[in-house]
């Protein structure tokens, strides 16, 4: 490099320079984007309504017939369960009390129909002590029912209860109201602020990641409503996307703030340090964000609309974070970059605090002594570290081998919830299967005598092992569609119920083809079975596709076959270990009670799917951060051991702080009363903790020490054909030297 040569950063560096110079316009642009997004969401935003059925499945066909011909059955019901411990429910006094209760409920808002339990088939338990009456609501989804109106239903039931007469309400509408509102975003932000203050020691440096994350959250949250207007988006997806956006926004800017302070310590001006930061650490951020996007694309392989909606909402959050990192962050540095060390915490002395940066004569950051000691310990005990790390990961993953897939229901709710009490009362009075009846729906074609065909089907179903009862067929008003309600002997989460559904579909109902009826098995339980099986079928394609594409991205980024392979293996180990932690907690033992799960709970099939897509991308983030610094040192020194030590020591504090923030953000979901959100939060928090400690700080460096110079190997023919991305950037171009001038507006290289 000649003394008059000008530094030539890439597109990110040029964009950073422009954002730094025009910082006022950039801030105004982000404010305008937020206003436009909010306006569009208010005008065109949709509701979080979702169809959990599997496209083309037998249960979906049954649901379509129910919706068209039996709207009362297809809508949102509420079960009123009454248990009399002193006298039968047919007693005149009890009957009068039940009638008064039903009259009260009939008069409340959104109640359109109330069944008479004394005349409805199957509404009285065999022992005569329990009855169930169904309320019909005028809402299509539980979320559409105002919580205040649901609470009025609960108050009426509570008022009707007395010693000797227990009244409880069940159904998804009741569960939704009892779960209440939950938002963990603020908890995550507060925890992140504390960690950043401890990490950097100054208010300005800690405030930049928070500011970028909050701006990204504001924009992405408003855009979520627009996605919901055109796609199915489950109500838990925006919470997941918000927390992921917060975590990524803070982590990415944390990395760049650290690099900016290093460039400032090396002697660069605020504007030049901004350009250098985006042209080095910024590249790693873009690659890391791309891996998250690739992982989320994997959800499209499931073929389920609600998973695709989750993917799009999350990808929108990631895209907004990347845009904020590339434009808003440099603009904020234009305002606060020269004050990056201002407002230091009084307990941390300048130059001695955790955020202190020491630079060598060559302009490279001097790692802290603690991280250097740890790195050299791993180098000396590399084989032991690989064995211990791998053994620990496999031990954590072991509980996943016994995982039972299914959908948590009211039986897994807290014991003081009305929905749980109704669930238990139904199971005690009618049998476990009463909480998950199967709905058999069929059209009666012209020329078929339904009067003889339907009883034949009912008799065949009733004779099937695992069936407790079959209620008399019900015809729609036109008389051409019939509904049979089947009560299994086992509960909705029992494997025997799944076997019964398959037996009906594969053996019993096809055998009734002589009747001329095409019978579909539907209901919540059957739909859950179909979703779980669809997930299981699509999981290999999802995992294979995401892993292969991510490996190719790593190959292009780091030009090493070995790095590509080891990264994939390590990331898969992190995900499987997290699966094991979640499986252990869902067993409902001592681990489950720590987070509020006191009963054995099945794992929804989409939980490991969502966990994989999110966690594989996040694991790749830390891999990119770590390996990019190792490669930077390798290109400079061609010393494998030195590059591992430099990379580990140089990123140890950043990855530790980033992981701590991620863990606290996702752990904010654990107190949620929703088992799905609780499982997702716990699994992702555990995976990030495992990944940042056992994997990044132990397994990766130890394995790379064992492999030696082979870490950086790639066939020459492949190396010649791979594009040069410079993921680690070209830091040598920005290092101050005699006669070298830096520029924020150069020509692209």
Could you characterize the architecture of this molecule?
The structure is a single chain. The chain is of the alpha+beta class. The chain has 4 domains: about 10-45 and about 200-345, Multidrug efflux transporter AcrB transmembrane fold, CATH 1.20.1640.10; about 75-180, Multidrug efflux transporter AcrB pore domain like (Alpha-Beta Plaits); about 365-405 and about 530-720, Multidrug efflux transporter AcrB transmembrane domain (Multidrug efflux transporter AcrB transmembrane fold, Up-down Bundle); about 420-530, Alpha-Beta Plaits (2-Layer Sandwich), CATH 3.30.70. About 60% of the residues lie in helices and about 5% in strands. The protein has 24 helices and 9 strands. The chain has helices spanning about 10-20, 25-45, 60-70, 70-75, 90-105, 145-160, 170-180, 185-200, 205-230, 235-265, 270-295, 305-335, 370-380, 380-395, 420-430, 450-460, 495-510, 525-560, 560-585, 590-595, 605-635, 640-665, 675-705, 715-720, and strands at about 75-85, 110-115, 130-135, 165-170, 440-445, 465-470, 475, 480-490, 520. The strands form 2 sheets. Strands 5, 6, 7, 8 and 9 form a 5-stranded antiparallel β-sheet that branches. Strand 7 and strand 8 (about 480-490) form a beta hairpin. The protein starts with 10 loop residues before the first helix and ends in a 28-residue tail after the last helix. Residues about 1-5, about 350-355 and about 740-749 have low confidence and may be disordered. Pfam families: MMPL.
């Amino acid at each position: 490099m000649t003394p008059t040569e000008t530094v030539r950063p890439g597109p990110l560096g040029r964009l950073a320079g422009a954002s730094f110079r025009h910082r006022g316009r950039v801030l105004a642009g982000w404010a305008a984007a937020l206003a436009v997004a909010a306006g569009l969401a208010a005008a065109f935003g949709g509701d979080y309504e979702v169809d959990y059925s599997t496209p083309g499945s037998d249960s979906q066909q049954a649901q379509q017939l129910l919706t068209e011909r039996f709207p009362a059955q297809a809508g949102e019901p509420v079960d009123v369960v009454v248990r009399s411990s002193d006298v039968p429910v047919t007693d005149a006094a009890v009957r009068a009390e039940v009638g008064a209760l039903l009259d009260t409920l009939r008069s409340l808002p959104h109640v359109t129909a109330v069944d008479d339990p004394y005349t409805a088939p199957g509404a009285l338990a065999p022992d005569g002590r329990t009855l169930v009456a169904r309320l019909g609501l005028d809402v299509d989804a539980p979320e559409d029912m105002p919580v205040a109106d649901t609470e009025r239903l609960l108050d009426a039931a509570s008022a009707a209860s007395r010693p000797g007469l227990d009244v409880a309400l069940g159904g998804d509408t009741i569960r939704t109201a009892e779960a209440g509102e939950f938002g963990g975003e603020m908890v995550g932000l507060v925890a992140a602020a504390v960690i950043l203050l401890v990490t950097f020691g100054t208010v300005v440096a800690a405030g930049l990641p928070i500011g970028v994350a909050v701006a990204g959250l504001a924009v992405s949250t408003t855009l979520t409503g627009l996605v919901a207007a055109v796609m199915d988006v489950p109500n838990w997806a925006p919470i997941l996307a918000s927390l992921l956006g917060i975590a990524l926004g803070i982590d990415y800017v944390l990395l760049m703030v650290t690099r900016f302070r290093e460039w400032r310590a090396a002697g660069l001006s605020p504007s030049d340090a901004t350009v250098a930061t985006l042209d080095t650490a910024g590249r790693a951020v873009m690659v890391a964000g791309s891996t998250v996007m690739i992982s989320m694309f994997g959800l499209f392989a499931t073929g389920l609309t609600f998973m695709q909606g989750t993917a799009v909402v999350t990808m929108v959050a990631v895209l907004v974070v990347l845009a904020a990192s590339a434009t808003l962050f440099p603009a904020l540095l234009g305002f606060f970059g020269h004050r990056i060390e201002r407002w230091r915490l009084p307990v941390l002395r300048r130059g001695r605090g955790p955020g202190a940066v020491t630079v060598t004569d060559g302009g490279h950051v001097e790692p802290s002594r603690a991280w250097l000691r740890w790195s050299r310990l791993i180098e000396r005990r590399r084989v032991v570290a690989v064995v211990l790390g791998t053994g620990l990961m496999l031990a954590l993953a072991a509980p996943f081998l016994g995982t039972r897939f299914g959908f948590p229901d009211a039986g897994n709710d807290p014991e003081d919830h009305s929905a749980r009490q109704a669930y238990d009362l139904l199971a005690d009075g009618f049998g476990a299967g009463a909480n998950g009846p199967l709905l058999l729906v069929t059209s009666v074609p012209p020329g078929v005598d339904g009067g003889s065909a339907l009883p034949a089907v009912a008799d065949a179903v009733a004779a099937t092992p695992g069936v407790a009862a079959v209620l008399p067929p019900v015809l729609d008003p036109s008389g051409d569609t019939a509904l049979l309600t089947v009560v299994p002997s086992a509960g909705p989460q029992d494997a025997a119920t799944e076997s019964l559904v398959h037996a009906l579909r594969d053996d019993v109902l096809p055998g009734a083809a002589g009747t001329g009826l095409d019978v579909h098995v539907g209901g919540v339980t059957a739909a859950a079975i179909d979703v779980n099986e669809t997930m299981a079928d699509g999981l290999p394609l999802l995992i294979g596709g995401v892993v292969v594409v991510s490996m190719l991205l790593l190959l292009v980024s780091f030009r090493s076959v070995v790095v590509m392979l080891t990264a994939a293996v390590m990331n898969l180990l992190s995900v499987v270990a997290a699966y094991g932690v979640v499986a252990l907690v869902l067993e409902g033992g001592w681990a489950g009670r720590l987070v509020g799960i006191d009963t054995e709970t099945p794992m929804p099939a989409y939980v490991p799917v969502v966990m994989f897509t999110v966690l594989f991308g996040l694991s790749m983030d830390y891999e990119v951060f770590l390996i990019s610094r190792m490669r930077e040192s390798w290109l400079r020194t061609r010393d494998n051991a030195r590059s591992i030590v430099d990379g580990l020591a140089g990123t140890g504090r950043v990855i530790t702080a980033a992981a701590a923030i991620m863990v606290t953000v996702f752990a904010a979901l654990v107190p949620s009363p929703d088992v799905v959100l609780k499982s997702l939060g716990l699994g992702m928090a555990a995976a990030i903790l495992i990944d940042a400690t056992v994997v990044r700080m132990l397994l990766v460096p130890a394995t790379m020490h064992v492999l030696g110079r082979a870490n950086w190997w790639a066939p020459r023919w492949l190396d010649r054909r791979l594009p040069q991305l410079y993921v680690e950037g070209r830091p040598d171009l920005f290092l101050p030297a005699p006669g070298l001038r830096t520029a924020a507006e150069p020509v692209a290289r």
